[in-house]
Amino acid sequence: xxxxxxxxxxxxxxxxxxxxxxxxxxxxxxxxxxxxxxxxxxxxxxxxxxxxxxxxxxxxxxxxxxxxxxxxxxxxxxxxxxxxxxxxxxxxxxxxxxxxxxxxxxxxxxxxxxxxxxxxxxxxxxxxxxxxxxxxxxxxxxxxxxxxxxxxxxxxxxxxxxxxxxxxxxxxxxxxxxx
Length: 179
Ligand code: IMP
Ligand code: MG
Description:
About 20% of the residues lie in helices and about 30% in strands. By secondary structure, it is an alpha/beta fold. The chain has a single domain (about 15-150), classed as Rossmann fold (3-Layer(aba) Sandwich). A 6-stranded mixed sheet has the order 4-3-2-5-6-7, with helices on both faces. Strands 1-9-8 form a 3-stranded antiparallel sheet. The mean pLDDT is about 95.
């Protein structure tokens, strides 16, 4: 499948993403404005660009940590069974936590990670995803903040890959097969 020919059509421009991140950060600051330290947890690898832009727009005292959950591998379909491949370096008990994800698709990944982190008794825990595909949901889960709701298209760019490719596109594009 990954050797199929495809082109990428722009879906969300870099400018639109930047503007939306500014809005989201106002809302996050309204929620966490009184924090002594916010642990911003990025889900590897797809959130690495989003988290970089997000934290630079968040003038709060923060720490950054990362967690890796099993992903699609090279497939375009979710595996449904979520495993933790790399856990956080730091403890989050009694801390304010913001979990940052690239896309909520079936919902299995982020709902699993949120449940796991809640079991560690943080003070407050919220989640944010840049993209949401509500029509694909298989579990009852909603992130606290969403950048953009999108239709059921396979997207790449801004950190998000297709078989590890296209993460470095500065915008979100949709994959269109040409063969
Ligand atoms: P979920 O567990 O089905 O919600 O899957 C979430 C994960 O699947 C995200 O973290 C992405 O890594 C990946 N994913 C979902 N949709 C896409 C897509 O359109 N392009 C690339 N990766 C995706
Ligand atoms: Mg992912």
